[in-house]
Amino acid sequence: MRTTVGIIGAGPAGLLLARLLHHAGIDSVVLESRDRAYVEQRQRAGILEQGTVDVLRAAGAGERMDREGLPHDGIELRYDRKRHRVDFPALTGGRSVMVYAQTEVCKDLIALQLGDGGPLLFEAEALAVEDADTDAPRVRFRHEGREDVLECEYVVGCDGFWGVARKAIPAELTRVFERTYPFAWLGILADVPPSHDELVYARHDRGFALLSMRSPSVSRLYLQVPEGTDARSWGDEEIWDELERRFETDDDWKLDRGPITQKSVTPMRSYVHEPMRHGRLFLAGDAAHIVPPTGAKGLNLAVGDVVTFAKALTHQRETGSAERLDAYSETCLRRVWQAERFSYDMTSLLHRAPDATPFEDRMQLARLERIAGSRAAETDLAEGYTGFPFG
After folding, report:
1. What is the SS3 assignment for 110-152?
2. How confident is the model at residue 319 (pLDDT cuts 50, 70, 90)?
3. What is the dihedral of CA 232, 234, 236, 239, to 10 degrees?
4. Looking at the whole model, is its pTM more than 0.90?
5. How far apart are CA 225 and CA 8, in angstroms?
6. Torsions phi, psi of 154, nearest 5?
7. Strands lying side by side in the sheet with 97-99
8. Which residues are catalytic?
9. Rounded CA gap, 53 and 16, in Å?
10. 247 closest CA partner among 217, 202, 292, 286
11. Positive or negative CA dihedral for 318, 322, 326, 327?
C-alpha cells in the first residue's frame, strides 16, 4: 500500500489531519489499532478552544457541533466561599470556547472520512516506523491477521503516548521534560442537568473540584484525589457529599445530584518530547506532549500540531519550499510550551498539594484575589484558556 501521508492513530488529531489533507488534495491513509466503536466511545476532552472550533467548521465538521455543542463565554472561579466569573469575550476581543466531547468530534470526522476521504483502517495496529530519516519512510502494520507495509512520503504519529511513532526517533537525538503530580482526578458522569451554565473551577482546602458538562442533561464533575486512587473506593453519595463541600459558597447556590453512570481516575502529568520531527516523521498530540487536564489543552494542542503540518505540507506542494516543514518542531513547540505553562499555572493555582503549608495556601488565595481584582491578570487567564494562536 502506498500513500503521500501515513497517519498513525484515528483520534481527533489523526482524523482532522486526514480531513485537512483531503481538502488540500493530498492523499493519506489512517491506521487505527482499535475498532470503530472504541474510538467513538472513549471519553476524553470536552472543551474546544476558539481556534479548534474555527478549524472544525472550515474542515466541514462543524454542523453537528454548532447544533449540539454548548458555547461558553466564561468560567467561574470559586475560592474561600467566593465566586468570580471570567468573561472571555470581553477580555479577548470576542473569543470563547465550546463544550463538545471528543467522542462527538471523532464521530463527525469518521463519518466524513468514510464518506469521501481516503482509507481509514480500523483494527490496523502499527508495529513500527522504518526509514524515517529517508525520503521513503514506511509503517509496518498488522491488519486482518496479516502484516503489511504502508509506504509513504511522510508519516505523522498521532498515536498517543504509548504509540510506536515516537520510538522511531533515536534516543540520542531527544530531550524529555516531564513532571508528575502527587494527585489525580476522580471523574464522574451523572444523569443530572449541570448545576451551573458554565464550568466552575473550585479551589478548596480539601482539594480541587470542577463542575463541567457533556450536554444539557448530563453533568461531568471531578474531584482532586490522591495519586493512585481506585475509583471503586468512592461511593456515590460520598462523591456527591465531597463535591458539595468543595463547591460551597456564601450564597444560596445548590449542587443538584443524580445517578452516577461512570467513574474513572485520571493521573496528572506534564510531558514534552523534543524534537517533534525526525526526518520525514512528525509527532502530533500526546505522542509528543501531555498536559494536566486543568487547562483543557490536550485536544486543542493536538489540533494545533496537525494544522501546522497540513499548512506546511500544502506550502511545500504549492511553492516547492520545505522551509515550513523544516520548522515544524520549532513552530509547534512554541505553542506547546505556552500551553504547558498555562496548564501548570492552573494546576498549581487550584490544587492543594498533600504537603501544602499555610503559607502556600495563602499564596493560592492571593493569586486568585489578584485575578478577581486585576483586569490584566484576568485577561492573561482568559487568553490562555480560549487558546494561543496556531503557528
Report:
1. HHHHHHHCCCEECCEEEEEEECCCCCCCEEEEEECCEEEEEEC
2. very high
3. -140
4. yes
5. 34
6. -145, 150
7. 47-48, 97-99, 70-72
8. 72, 201, 293, 297, 385
9. 12
10. 202
11. negative
